[in-house]
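Chapter review: from sequence to fold.
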Amino acid sequence: VIFKFKQFGEYLGTRQLGANVREQLLPLIDGDEKVVLDFEGVEVVSNSFADECLAKLLLSRTLDDLKQHTTFQGLNDFAKKNIALAFKRRMYALQSA
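The token string follows.
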């Protein structure tokens, strides 16, 4: 299953958008097939969007579980860094809680 983030725009920046996209993504991740998170054509993924859409998945799943059910493609370096930072911050917050 391929989930194309470009359908939501080239600039993914707000928490509101991140929450909306996460709600659409959840049923796919809960399915049996691996989900390809395709960022082809997306120029910017803000830290806020990355946290709200992707890192908050850690509230209901383990990182290993997410790795088994998802894979990334088409990320530029800027988006890759923001997504990695969002996951790192979310994991730290969960461990500190």
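Two observations follow directly from the output. The first helix runs from residue 15 to 29. The first strand starts at residue 2 and ends at 4.
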